[in-house]
Design a protein that fits this description.
The protein is mainly β. The protein has no helices and 11 strands. Strand 4 and strand 5 form a beta hairpin.
Length: 147
């Protein structure tokens, strides 16, 4: 079901003295939501290297969660969904690593990244739009790419 894992963002949080890693996983089925996996580094019983174990999953971001951001602090995780119905989702990271939906708002399509500004009070979305150029187009055209 979820064949492609995309590392969209990291959250090295010290929750209950355990390290957590947040990973966005896109669905290969357009009707199923993607997942945000919370992974935890677990000590190997034989004192060997740590291994990663999935401790929680969330499907609240949408079909194509591609960007995770934790710069707001206070356990807030922002997630961008790049699907046909794109959105920006705010989630609260709980002490056990689970994510609780705080809010969700529709966005314009093509958002591929975000950045907070103005003392973390605002969020700017980065969009990409590529216009495909026909093979026999005018090579002197100055506006092949539009943003």
């Amino acid at each position: 079901m979820f064949k492609n894992l995309v590392l969209a963002g990291l959250a090295s949080a010290s929750l209950a003295s355990a390290q957590k890693l947040l990973v966005a996983s896109q669905s290969t089925n357009a009707t199923l939501p993607g997942q945000i996996l919370t992974l935890e580094a677990v000590e190997n019983a034989s004192s060997g290297p740590k291994t990663l174990s999935v401790v929680h999953t969330s499907t609240d971001c949408g079909i194509l969660p591609t960007w995770l951001d934790v710069t707001l602090g206070s356990g807030t995780v922002l997630c961008l969904d790049e699907s046909a119905t794109p959105n920006l989702t705010a989630l609260a990271l709980q002490p056990d690593g689970s994510l609780k939906l705080v809010s969700k708002i529709a966005t314009a399509g093509g958002a591929v990244g975000l950045r907070t500004y103005d003392n973390l009070s605002k969020v700017a979305l980065a969009h990409v739009s590529i216009r495909l150029v026909p093979e026999h187009s005018n090579k002197n055209s100055a506006n092949i790419f539009r943003y």
